[in-house]
Amino acid sequence: MYQLQCAGTLIWTFLWSLVVGIGYEVDLNRAGVPLLEIVSEPNMRTGVEAPEYAAEVQRMVQYLGVSNGNMQQGSLRCDVNVSIRPVGQLEFGTKILFELMAKGGTVKGLIEEKDLVQIVDPAEIEKIVDKVLLENPKQLEQYHGGKTKLQGYFVGQVMKVSKGRANPGLLNKIVMEKLNATG
């Protein structure tokens, strides 16, 4: 956390660019206003955590009386880098911060628009697990023959089908239950 001064905002003007070429305006409305930047751990695991975190920061600055926390007026700004990575993948996926800044809107809205919402409904995960088990009878037979490490294979297949959106904890539990029930 550190404090800095707002120097102004550079705004690209579309109308001006049509007439003269690329055009920018400078908004000095908040120039000289002290800014407080909070940099959090870059490790939020669900699409729910980011908007909840932003809302909590907003409530905190309002409660402390240091800001009205109004994002539309620019009193509070949340720059978020959302990156999706499947379970087991170490490197981050494509970041969508610039898209959020360009389009505006909310973190939650962009997560929903990009269909990045984590699947936490057990029934929905069960349907995918059932489908994967039906499509992989050979591996299922091998699992019941003693190759228990194939559990990871089934989890991976479900993550592939769900595009990495299945809740990992819930998924592992359901896969284990289904594998033990089919044996």
UniProtKB/TrEMBL annotation:
<dbReference type="GO" id="GO:0070681">
    <property type="term" value="P:glutaminyl-tRNAGln biosynthesis via transamidation"/>
</dbReference>
<keyword id="KW-0067">ATP-binding</keyword>
<keyword id="KW-0547">Nucleotide-binding</keyword>
<dbReference type="InterPro" id="IPR017958">
    <property type="entry name" value="Gln-tRNA_amidoTrfase_suB_CS"/>
</dbReference>
<dbReference type="GO" id="GO:0050567">
    <property type="term" value="F:glutaminyl-tRNA synthase (glutamine-hydrolyzing) activity"/>
</dbReference>
<feature type="signal peptide">
    <location>
        <begin position="1"/>
        <end position="21"/>
    </location>
</feature>
<dbReference type="GO" id="GO:0005524">
    <property type="term" value="F:ATP binding"/>
</dbReference>
<dbReference type="Pfam" id="PF02637">
    <property type="entry name" value="GatB_Yqey"/>
</dbReference>
<dbReference type="InterPro" id="IPR018027">
    <property type="entry name" value="Asn/Gln_amidotransferase"/>
</dbReference>
<dbReference type="InterPro" id="IPR023168">
    <property type="entry name" value="GatB_Yqey_C_2"/>
</dbReference>
<dbReference type="GO" id="GO:0006412">
    <property type="term" value="P:translation"/>
</dbReference>
<dbReference type="InterPro" id="IPR014746">
    <property type="entry name" value="Gln_synth/guanido_kin_cat_dom"/>
</dbReference>
<protein>
    <submittedName>
        <fullName>GatB_Yqey domain-containing protein/GatB_N domain-containing protein</fullName>
    </submittedName>
</protein>
<feature type="domain" description="Asn/Gln amidotransferase">
    <location>
        <begin position="49"/>
        <end position="179"/>
    </location>
</feature>
<dbReference type="InterPro" id="IPR017959">
    <property type="entry name" value="Asn/Gln-tRNA_amidoTrfase_suB/E"/>
</dbReference>
<keyword id="KW-0648">Protein biosynthesis</keyword>
<keyword id="KW-0732">Signal</keyword>
<dbReference type="InterPro" id="IPR003789">
    <property type="entry name" value="Asn/Gln_tRNA_amidoTrase-B-like"/>
</dbReference>
<keyword id="KW-0436">Ligase</keyword>
